[in-house]
Amino acid sequence: MPQMMPLSWLTLYLFFSSMLLIFTFMNYYSYIPQPSSTSKKNINIKILNWKW
Fold first, then answer.
1. CA contacts within 13 A on the Cβ side of 38
2. Where are the transmembrane segments (predicted)?
């Protein structure tokens, strides 16, 4: 049974690594954030004083 050369393994590794990077970058930069609304929302902060 013939085996692949080490150079072929290296090319496959580089190919799939580059595809992963390209896919990741495309997903990251294709995100378009929605503009936020002009009204501000009140944030309720509940302060808890811990007594040990």
1. 0
2. 12-31
Give how far Cα 44 sits from Cα of 36, 37, 38, 41, Å.
19, 19, 19, 9
What are the structure tokens assigned to 39, written together?
């009204």
**One-letter amino acid for residue 36 of the chain:** S
Q: Using one digit for the tens of pLDDT, what is the confidence trace for 13-36?
A: 999 999 999 999 999 888 777 777
